[in-house]
Amino acid sequence: MSDPDDALVLGFPEYPEQARALAQALELECAIAEVHRFPDSESLVRLPPALPSRVVVCRSLDRPNDKLVELALTAATARSMGVQTLTLVAPYLCYMRQDKAFHPGEAVSQMIIGRQLADQFDEVITVDPHLHRTPHLQQAVPAARTVALTSAPLIGEFIAGRFQAPLVLGPDGESEQWARAVAQSCGCAYGVAQKHRQGDRDVEVALPHVELAGRQVVLVDDIASTGRTLARAAEQVLAQGAADVQAVVVHALFVDDAMDHLRRAGVSAVWSTDSIRHPSNAIALAPLLAPALRPAQARVAR
Ligand code: R5P
Hints:
Layout: E1 7-11, H1 16-26, E2 29-32, E3 34-37, E4 43-46, E5 54-58, H2 64-80, E6 85-90, H3 109-120, E7 123-127, H4 137-140, E8 145-149, H5 152-162, E9 167-170, H6 176-186, E10 189-192, E11 194-199, E12 202-206, E13 216-224, H7 228-239, E14 244-252, H8 258-264, E15 270-273, E16 281-283, H9 286-293
């Protein structure tokens, strides 16, 4: 062990810049864990040979299944090396959408994965978790300390700097909390559409009654995965005569053909926070995340 009063930010190979930016904002050292995937897909995780008493693991949990196993290996290894306070900074927190059993026998992933992370980490810090029916992150992730930050002010600032009096539009009811907060932050009008999803890629969107002719519309949502929600909203917006439609999302999952699909639907540009590494990243989260860690420099009692 090195100086026990030190702390270290531990990043992972697929998300190193964000870990380094966080470490820099906190004036801490940063190390990147080594991850080897064996031919049969098992993971080997190798941490630095010595760790301080506090380690901040910075890893976003998009495409999460391997990462969850690797976090379990990381946490157990760090504890065995004497780490006392283990913080997880996961700007995108996975498995938060499945918050109830919609059919008998269905796993309530939010509670199960949340419990697993709380067992491994003293603190869990994230950004705009998809908590729809669960009011507080602590209920989903019962760790000693949880922090759910919102990127809405940063997104609002981004929109204010790039657009002139656009209409902010949330593409479904669940996006209302983000659309409203972003619109308040940039001083724009906002509206919220309604969505009916019949399948992963089968979505219908009905717009609110707002005059769209000639307007600049910015779609705002927390998550974009297949891009179908944004695409269906964009098509409707353009059909009603909007001059331009762009999209800003917090978590840029953008699986498979999502970006092509959005372009074909007429979305002229897509922007995102760097909660998930993606070419659309335009809003850095380190300035938001760092202050949430500072009060926790003191160790969490276990
Ligand atoms: C769900 O309610 C979320 O807010 C997003 O609207 C949803 O995850 C987007 O999914 P997709 O891009 O696959 O339509």
